[in-house]
Amino acid sequence: MGVPLLITKNLTVGYGQRLLFGSLSLCLRSKAFVCLIGANGAGKSTLLKTLAGLQKPLAGRVFFREQNLHQLPPEQRAKHLSMVLTDRLELDWLSVEELVSLGRHPYTDWQGRLGAGDRDIVRRAIAAVGLTELRQKSITQISDGERQKAMIARALAQQTELMILDEPTAYLDLPRRVEVMQLLRSLAHTENRSVLMSTHDLDLALRSADQLWLVTASRDLVMGTPEELVLQGALGATFGSDRFEFDRVSGQFQLNYQRRSPIQLQGEGLVTTWTARALTRLGYEITTEATDLVLEVRSNPDLWILNCGDRPLKFQSLGELSTHLQAYNMNTVDQSGHGRH
């Protein structure tokens, strides 16, 4: 990881009379991809705006390369960090290229004229997010995901060492969320930038971030690699409930179903893996011990053989098996036509 870029000293964050965070001592290093996670209403947006210099802290200071960020003039601060908010700006009259060009505003003259170097930076920023073919399109003619990429390109064109983004994947479908997350991670690692973003995509954050900043239920800020926070139990303690829990082995949330009978699963390969997922979803406890229920998975062709009594039941699809197992209760098997045998 790089050298310290943004540091806070005894930072107290809030608004009006409401205190959100107290005495924060944070360190964001260069070339880092950091995800800020926490429950809705935990104060993530307020914290990001304070770190970006858009909102004054209640106490304490924010330093960017040893300069007090809140004492810098806005035009100078804009050369150090850029920010992408979730607020939908009324920029529909702009093309993609014109929107991205706004990122050069801190460097242009009072008339806002772009030089050859500025235009080259804008073109490279557009290319970095994969929008070259859409650069002349109006903002109204592109998708939400493409619009979000254009906003990121505007921040890129600003050529700051630090990019702060508030929920950049909000309102995007899963493929677009993955694309944006991969793009930001790549920018941090290949463009020598630091990226700090808030997100509710916990699974993507666990897979992508160099470091997580976790806002706990008591509004403490816990920092560490994704693996460290999983092993410490901090994620489970923050996001768990009586309806679901964070499984530290799989790194995923598991719903707390009404538990059914234990079942022994036999087989290997991808089909067996997803069969195990289906059994867990249905509430069955998978075990290696001897049980009344034994499920054997065969491949090529796929076949599921359920031993639960005098004769085995055979299923030719995972859907058939799931339907049958949903009806299975208290060690009683309804063999009236569900299985093929």
Average pLDDT number = 86
Approximate helicity band: 25-40%
Number of strands: 18
Shape: elongated
**Low-pLDDT residue spans:** 330-341
The largest β sheet comes out as: 6 strands, mixed
Give the strand content.
25-35%
Instruction: Trace the largest sheet across and list its strands.
Output: 7-8-9-4-10-11
Q: Decide which structural class fits the backbone.
A: alpha/beta
Order of helices and strands: EEEEHEEHEHHHEHEHEEHHEEEHEEEEH
Contiguous helical run count: 11
In short:
The chain is 30% helix and 26% strand.
Could you characterize what this model shows?
This protein has 341 residues and is α/β, with parallel strands linked by helices. It is 30% helix and 26% strand. The chain contains 11 helices and 18 strands. The strands form 4 sheets. Strands 7-8-9-4-10-11 form a 6-stranded mixed beta sheet, with helices on both faces. Strands 1, 2, 3, 5 and 6 form a 5-stranded antiparallel beta sheet that branches. The radius of gyration is 26 Å and the shape is elongated. The N and C termini lie far apart (60 Å). The C terminus is likely disordered.
